[in-house]
Design goal:
The structure is a homodimer of 129-residue chains. Chain A is α+β, with helices and mostly antiparallel strands and 129 residues long. The first copy, chain A, contains three helices and seven strands; from the N terminus they run H-E-E-E-E-H-E-E-H-E. In chain A, a hairpin with a 5-residue loop joins strand 1 and strand 2.
């Protein structure tokens, strides 16, 4: 049972620089969970990753995923999102990585961003507590 | 690619009262993610839930799940666990709920714990950053 819109009063959990725990389904049908940076903009979720990491490899095969974001200030308040990957595009200069690093307040630049990718996804459903 | 043992130096993420983001696979094959309390003891993970909530309903059907626990003090450090549910047992007095509430420092007792269950699971693999 999921909602089709962001539940009222929960939008801040997509705006603030919080970690999303991203749930994906591996090739053997069992799930995996990975904390990831994210950006929500223009009704799309975007993530930075590398082409060789499990998240990217799994999402190329099985684009449906979910994520949950917990409010660190009210730890029984969270938002869940089900989404589908629309595109995995190269980010060879690490431009999108830099943007997320700024958003999350991490002062780091990549030595070699050549295998960076941007994972872009469309939210399809929401749940919350 | 998962490890068969808790990676060295990551055990604290299972001992501390942190939230696990639990990834499950719904009936349609897509994942869901839910922040949950947990206890790790005697090589088993335990969770409190109610018999009617999505987590319990999904895990009765598809017992393989994953979870990730992020270190709030070092937010690029986390532990992922793949696990399989061994048992879902009634907790009609809410005894296990009370134990977890104490562990998480929440001063609340249930009005009606009659539909409470304990979900017990065996870890099968680990990943971390």
């Amino acid at each position: 049972v999921t909602l089709s819109q962001i539940p009222e009063g929960y939008g801040d959990l997509l705006e603030r620089p919080l970690f999303a725990h991203v749930a994906v389904v591996a090739q053997d049908g069992t799930p995996r969970s990975y904390p990831m940076w994210f950006l929500y903009e223009d009704d799309r979720l975007s993530f930075t990753n590398t082409s060789g990491r499990p998240q990217t490899r799994i999402l190329r095969r099985t684009p449906q995923f979910a994520m949950s974001v917990l409010d660190p200030d009210q730890p029984y308040r969270y938002l869940g999102v089900a989404a589908t990957v629309e595109a995995i595009t190269p980010d060879p200069a690490g431009t999108f990585f830099d943007r997320l690093a700024d958003r999350y307040g991490l002062d780091v630049r990549l030595d070699d961003p050549s295998d960076r990718v941007i994972i872009t996804a469309r939210p399809a459903g929401f749940w919350r507590q």
